[in-house]
């Protein structure tokens, strides 16, 4: 009956007014008749009735504490509270006022949680108001209308006692026409940490300040020498622009003593934006225009982290839990984690000009089990950032132990405090929610420090990607803490090397203890299988390139991004990204291909078959091996065997043909397969299959053709001989005519029967026949092509003494 007890501190006038009105409304009721007759008893019963009626209308007015300054007051300070009260009921509230209430000291951290959970519950215990001069009055509160209040009170008038955490509440009291008496209609509880003097033992506090984002870059790059990067969208430009989330993180963080935790992928992406880049816009890409913003953000970050501790996560912040639970049995998955770790040195230091610490692994929400620790340390990290709600205390310690815990195998678990780490989750877009989060955080920090006189090292590991409002609340809380009296800042490396508490829990839980809510958001095994297939395709592609780095670097980083924590809870987007990487790689490797061939005809027993390789890449490819295989070697052989291989290299943007010698053993159709191979014997690209039709020439056909050629030769020779003889006879006839004209007229002619007639030559018998033919050809005109006789015309005179006669 907290409300009734609180009501006793008010004046008697409201109680009497309520008593009169109640009596008038329910006159004749025996109980209230007796009530009216007994003033003392009537007062107590009225107070009880007031409490019951107030409970029935709890929270009709919403109280919002938008500001509480200073968040942790000290001696001589004036506490100022401002906010709004809003009538959420249907009736106007009259005679209202906002008052301040200070409760007793809160002695446990769990009590802080309980009060925060029921911060606006009117049925919970309510402390009395402080002096009513520290209040603000309202004649009426109209339904749905918010009224602002601002109250200042010297901290000395709050009557705070010993150092510690106190409940601090702002309430709205008033009347309604249905309940015409003073009652608490709304309340908002928060906390006031009180440590005016420096603590004897300050808590060493490490706050992580994460610079992590989602995946923004595609595997695609431009064909130019600079390989212009391509971004999936323009979201990163929004984040680093003034007012954007990442811009606020840098602006707020530079004034804090924190350990920066960065994802190298974010740095590489922003660095890529400082030059020429393109952004996907549907099926095309457009030129990026935010180079100035990217340069400014990097310059601000470089200034902020100068001389500060920087912890670098593996490239693209791989999901260690998903890998441990679903990816270790997929070949190559752990190698991807190792590559993501190795690339850090070539990314962070060249951009930020500070050497990062790469000894830490950070699973999602600090949730660990034995398999996660094993995977986290496989890439070289020997410290794992866990959280106290995962590595829970089991020894009944009455205090929170230091963060560092040896968990075996030379590995240290750095256990962040769960309450402090989760203080800024949820919707903090309103000033009231942000203020309550800050005060709760400070209350938990001071409560932790007062648990024991032992000095401890505490780590705060907030959510990876806080929103702008969450970041602002975090920064406000850390500023107060770092300028306060009970805490001192410490770097993460120092916290991990602090002397462990011998009673702290060091046993890492088993896999079954991993939170089911987190397991539902993990990357499935299929994601790691798809990535492994893409890696195999990349391995086959890079060996044929003259400059593999143009492909290995962008695709290697894209494969790292496929394992990113940022895909948790976004399975469709993750699948789309993986499919896009594989499609683009297939498209590039497909630019080196065999040209399709149609059916080839082979006439004869041997011939050559050309096969063409086309290279549409901008760089040279090779050496490759081109193999031509006959599926029916008994009919068609390639180079005297079933198949033949030849090396080939092709310049960028060109095609090249390779000729294979073939031999046919029989007529018919034979199928031939052309396939490219890498030098290590792995098939490259798709094969090209075509048919070869063998039409062998038979022996009979060859004889017929040979006979025809012979006849043509003989006919030509006969014509040549006949023409030569005709020319000779024509010459002989001309000589005989000349001799006849020169004979002496008195000389007797020889007769056929004369014994003195000269002896005939031996060929005379054949001459009449030849001479009978000669006149017909002698008259033919001489052809220019006729050959000149190679012997002189024979003489018809008798041979002289001793003259030889040719036969």
Overview of this protein structure:
The chain is of the alpha/beta class and 807 residues long. The chain folds into 4 domains: 61-194, Immunoglobulin-like (Sandwich), CATH 2.60.40.10; 203-502, 7-stranded beta/alpha barrel (Alpha-Beta Barrel), CATH 3.20.110.10; 525-590; 593-695, Immunoglobulin-like. Helices cover 35% and strands 25% of the residues. Strands 8, 11, 14, 19 and 20 form a 5-stranded parallel beta sheet that branches. Strands 22-29-28-24-26 form a 5-stranded mixed beta sheet, with no helix packed on it. Strands 4-3-6-7 form a 4-stranded antiparallel beta sheet, sandwiched between helices. A hairpin with an 8-residue loop joins strand 1 and strand 2. The longest helix is centred in the C-terminal third of the chain and has 43 residues, at 699-741. The model is unreliable at 1-57 and 740-807 (pLDDT under 50).
Short description:
The chain is an alpha/beta fold. Helices cover 35% and strands 25% of the residues.
Tell me the β content: 15-25%
The backbone outline, from C-alpha atoms, is elongated
- Which spans of ≥5 residues are poorly predicted at pLDDT below 50? 1-57, 740-807
Q: At the third CATH level, what is the topology name of the largest domain?
A: 7-stranded beta/alpha barrel
What is the total domain count? 4
Q: How many strands appear in the DSSP assignment?
A: 29
- SS summary, helix count: 23
The CATH C-level name of the largest domain is Alpha Beta
Structural class: alpha/beta
Radius of gyration: 53 Å
The CATH architecture of the largest domain can be given as: Alpha-Beta Barrel
Report how far apart the termini are.
Answer: 164 Å
Percent range of helical residues:
25-40%
**What is the mean predicted local confidence, pLDDT?**
85
CATH superfamily (homologous) name of the largest domain: Glycoside hydrolase 38, N terminal domain
Biggest sheet architecture: 5 strands, parallel
């Amino acid at each position: 009956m907290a409300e009734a007890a609180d009501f006793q501190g008010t004046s008697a006038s409201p109680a009497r007014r309520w008593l009169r009105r109640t009596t008038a409304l329910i006159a004749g009721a025996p109980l209230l008749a007796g009530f009216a007759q007994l003033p003392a008893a009537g007062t107590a019963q009225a107070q009880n009735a007031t409490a019951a009626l107030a409970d029935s209308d709890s929270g009709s007015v919403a109280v919002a504490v938008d500001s509480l300054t200073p968040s942790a007051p000290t001696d001589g300070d004036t506490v100022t509270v401002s906010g709004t009260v809003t009538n959420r009921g249907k009736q106007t509230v009259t005679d209202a006022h906002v008052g301040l209430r200070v409760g007793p000291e809160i002695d446990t951290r769990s009590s802080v949680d309980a009060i925060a959970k029921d911060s606006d519950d009117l049925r919970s215990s309510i402390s009395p108001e402080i002096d009513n001069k520290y209040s603000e009055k309202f004649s009426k509160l109209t339904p749905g209308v918010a009224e602002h209040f601002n109250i200042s009170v010297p901290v000395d008038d709050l009557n705070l006692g010993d150092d510690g955490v106190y409940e601090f509440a702002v309430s709205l009291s008033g009347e309604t026409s249905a309940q015409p008496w003073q009652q608490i209609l709304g309340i908002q509880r928060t906390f006031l940490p009180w440590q005016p003097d420096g603590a004897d033992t300050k808590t060493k506090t490490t706050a992580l300040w994460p610079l992590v984002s989602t995946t923004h870059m595609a595997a695609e790059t431009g064909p130019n020498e600079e390989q212009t990067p391509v971004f999936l969208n323009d979201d990163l430009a929004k984040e680093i622009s003034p007012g954007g989330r990442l811009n606020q993180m840098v602006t707020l963080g530079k004034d804090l003593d924190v350990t920066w935790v960065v994802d190298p992928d974010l740095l590489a992406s922003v660095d890529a934006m400082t030059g020429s880049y393109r952004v996907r816009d549907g099926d095309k890409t457009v030129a990026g225009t935010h180079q100035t913003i990217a340069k400014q953000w990097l310059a601000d970050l470089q200034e902020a982290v100068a001389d500060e501790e920087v912890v670098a996560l593996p490239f693209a912040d791989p999901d260690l839990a998903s890998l441990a639970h679903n990816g270790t049995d997929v070949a190559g998955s752990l190698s991807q984690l190792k590559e993501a770790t190795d690339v850090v040195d070539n990314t962070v230091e060249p951009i930020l000009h500070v050497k990062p610490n790469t000894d830490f692994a950070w699973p999602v929400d600090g949730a660990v089990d034995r398999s996660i620790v094993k995977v986290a340390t496989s890439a070289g990290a020997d410290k794992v950032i866990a959280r106290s709600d995962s590595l829970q205390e089991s020894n009944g310690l009455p205090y929170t132990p230091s963060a560092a815990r040896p968990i075996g195998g030379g590995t240290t678990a750095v256990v962040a405090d769960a309450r402090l780490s989760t203080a800024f989750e949820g919707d903090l877009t309103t000033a009231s929610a942000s203020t309550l989060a800050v005060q709760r955080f400070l209350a938990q920090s001071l409560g932790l420090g007062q648990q024991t006189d032992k000095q401890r090292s505490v780590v705060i590991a907030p959510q990876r990607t806080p929103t702008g409002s969450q970041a602002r609340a975090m920064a406000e809380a850390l500023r107060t803490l770092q300028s306060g009296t009970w805490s001192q800042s410490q770097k993460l490396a120092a916290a991990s090397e602090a002397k462990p508490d011998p009673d702290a829990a060091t046993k890492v839980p088993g896999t079954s203890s991993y939170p089911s809510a987190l397991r539902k958001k993990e990357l499935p095994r299929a994601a790691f299988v798809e990535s492994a297939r893409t890696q195999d395709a990349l391995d086959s592609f890079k060996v044929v390139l003259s400059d593999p780095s143009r492909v290995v670097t962008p695709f290697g980083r894209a494969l790292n991004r496929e394992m990113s924590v940022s895909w948790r809870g976004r399975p469709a987007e993750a699948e789309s990204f993986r499919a896009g990487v594989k499609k683009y790689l297939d498209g590039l490797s497909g630019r080196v291909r065999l040209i399709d061939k149609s059916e080839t005809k082979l006439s004869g027993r041997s011939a050559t078959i050309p096969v063409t390789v086309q290279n549409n890449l901008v760089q040279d490819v090779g050496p490759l091996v081109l193999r031509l295989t006959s599926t029916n070697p008994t009919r068609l052989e390639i180079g005297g065997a079933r198949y033949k291989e030849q090396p080939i290299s092709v310049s960028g943007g060109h095609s090249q043909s390779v000729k294979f010698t073939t031999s046919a053993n029989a007529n018919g159709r034979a199928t031939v397969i052309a396939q490219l191979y890498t030098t290590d014997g792995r098939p490259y690209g798709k094969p090209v299959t075509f048919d070869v039709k063998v039409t062998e020439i038979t022996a009979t056909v060859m004889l017929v053709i040979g006979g025809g050629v012979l006849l043509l030769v003989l006919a030509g020779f006969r014509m040549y001989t006949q023409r030569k003889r005709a020319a000779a006879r024509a010459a002989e006839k001309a000589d005989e005519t000349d001799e006849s004209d020169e004979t002496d007229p008195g000389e007797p002619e020889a007769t056929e029967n004369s014994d003195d007639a000269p002896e005939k030559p031996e060929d005379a018998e054949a001459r009449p026949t030849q001479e009978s033919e000669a006149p017909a050809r002698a008259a033919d005109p001489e052809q220019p092509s006729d050959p000149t006789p190679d012997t002189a015309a024979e003489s018809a005179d008798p041979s002289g003494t001793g003259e030889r006669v040719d036969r």
